[in-house]
Design brief:
This protein is α+β, with helices and mostly antiparallel strands. The chain contains 12 helices and 29 strands. Helix content is 25%, strand content 30%. The protein binds zinc ion.
């Protein structure tokens, strides 16, 4: 009895030892949040194909398979050009530049064919269809069939996450920006890639974490890191914020999650909430804020007549079954176009009311729809509408209606009174009836009489206005000495800056 107990104890001890060894080896293989990899979709959907051509200057390729984040080596070739071609049933061939087969492989679930250049070099992808793909990439390339019956394969670039951030930063912001603005954007880039983003945009089991376009964030491989003096600057910004991400500290379902740290070019002095711009309530940290520090924004403008507005409402853009477009299409001759209201702390227009001569009106609600309408309205003019941060000035018939650049910024000449304007021939008295060329926000413009009522659109800033303004971040760093954390807290509400290690956050493989 006693001996039997002892045997059992020894047996239990041995099992415990084996299990400890197993778990410790599993622990060693687990991915480290600080050195993890990201999966970037380079070709997918209609851009995926059954033939890819890759080249390298690093002495050839290694091939094998990917288990999601790890490359398993099976062989190598000295060929500097390789072709990967699939005939379906998950089968594919690796060929050299002359079309001679080097090896064949059959993809399985969680085990897809992969190649990488020798000596940690760069792979040049010759785009089968996308013009934005002809770049050099670090990391390895994985080929994942769209389905078990498809010949087309997704091309997925698996790369160290921090190196990915270093490649993206100069695609989104130039090295000439102040260091604190570059650091702020580094945190945005890292955070955005870890947010529950792929599922929102590309669907579950897509096989990658982010795509390579501005749909997620621009990733042109290593192409923007080629100039050393610029690379040293942008790499330093990413290194200085290594692993740092933002989480939402407010209440609700987003609490504790990494945020969708949306950013854009220029606010024109205020941002707009994600809900006003796009509807929904999924980004409670992107609310409207005033940005008086931002002064280096672009200004733009255009003039439209009531007839232009009416013609647009009857165009094919609005002859649609989509309810808001249909409502615009069904209006009669347009009498007025008005900005209904803006959000608190914002000058971005997200409610625009159109009224016809019979008194019927429709209010376009949501910034992206206002933008869609206005963008088409001014199409063809010298400068297109660049954001939803604009004002409307009603113009009477037979006034001159022109925005002239003065010492105080753009001013409207909208009456018959005499004004001195700067023209190509020096200062000239300008009055109704004369015809002259003046300098406006749209460049040189001929001033002529307007025979129809309409509106002068005067705008500021560039892009959607949600989240962090790059020009704002730049002005804050340059003119106010704000550090990157102050900049981030300025643009994102109720967030904390933490790290991937702190969160133990590992990007999913997303097969
Ligand atoms: Zn995307």
């Amino acid at each position: 009895m006693k001996r039997r107990t002892k045997q059992i104890l020894i047996f239990v001890a041995m099992i415990t030892l084996v299990m400890t060894l197993l778990s410790s080896s599993a622990g060693a293989a687990a991915e480290d949040p600080s050195t993890q990899k990201i999966r970037v979709g380079l070709c997918y959907g209609s851009n995926s194909t059954s033939n890819y051509t890759l080249t390298t200057k690093s002495g050839g390729f290694e091939y094998g398979y990917s288990t999601g984040k790890e490359f398993v080596l099976e062989g190598e070739t000295s060929a500097s050009t390789i072709k990967i071609s699939s005939s379906g049933n998950q089968k594919l061939s690796l060929m050299n530049g002359d079309g001679e087969t080097i090896t064949t492989f059959t993809n399985q679930s969680g085990k897809n064919f992969a190649v990488r250049p020798k000596n940690d070099g760069l792979t040049y992808v010759k785009s089968p269809s996308k013009s934005d793909l002809n770049y050099d990439y670090y990391g390895y390339m994985e080929f994942m069939h769209n389905s078990s019956t498809s010949t087309a394969m997704k091309l997925i670039n698996v790369i160290d996450f921090e190196l990915y951030c270093k490649c993206v930063l100069p695609c989104e912001l130039s090295a000439s920006y102040p260091m604190e603005a570059l650091k702020a954007l580094s945190v945005c880039i890292r955070t955005l890639a870890t947010a529950d983003y792929t599922q929102d945009r590309h669907g579950n089991n897509i096989g990658f974490n982010v795509c390579n376009t501005t749909d997620c964030q621009a990733y042109y491989g290593n192409s923007r890191r080629e100039v050393e003096k610029n690379r040293l600057i942008t790499d330093a910004a990413v290194d200085a914020t290594r692993g740092q991400v933002m989480i939402y500290t407010g209440s609700g379902s987003e609490h504790g999650k990494t945020i969708q740290s949306i950013y854009f070019s220029s606010s024109g002095g205020s941002t707009v909430s994600a809900s006003a711009q796009w509807g929904g309530s999924s980004m409670p940290y992107c609310v409207a804020v005033r940005v008086p520090e931002e002064t280096s924004y672009p200004v733009w403008g255009a003039t439209v007549t009531l007839e232009d507005i009416y013609n647009l409402t009857k165009s094919s853009d609005f002859n649609s079954s989509t309810s808001w477009k249909k409502a615009i299409y069904s209006l009669g001759e347009i009498k007025s176009m008005e900005i209904v209201s803006a959000e608190e702390n914002s000058d971005h227009v997200y409610k625009l009311r159109l009224t016809d001569v019979d008194g019927n009106s429709y209010t376009i609600t949501r910034g992206d729809r206002v933008y869609f309408f206005m963008h088409r309205l001014v199409k063809g003019q010298t400068k297109n509408i660049s954001s939803t941060n604009f004002t409307l000035t009603a113009l009477d018939p037979y006034s001159t209606n022109i925005g002239v650049i003065t010492a105080e910024g753009e001013q409207i000449i909208s009456s018959a009174e005499q004004v001195s304007v700067l023209t190509g021939s020096g200062e000239e008295a300008y009055s109704l009836g004369t015809s002259t060329t003046v300098l406006t926000a749209n460049g040189k413009q001929d001033v002529s009489l307007t025979s129809s009522s309409g509106y002068r659109i005067s705008g500021k800033g560039y892009s959607h206005g949600v989240g962090l303004s790059q020009k704002g971040a730049s002005d804050m760093a340059k003119n106010y000495g704000y550090d990157y954390e102050t900049i981030l807290h300025k643009f994102y509400t109720d967030v904390a800056i933490t790290s991937l290690e702190e969160l133990e956050l590992i990007l999913p493989i997303n097969y």
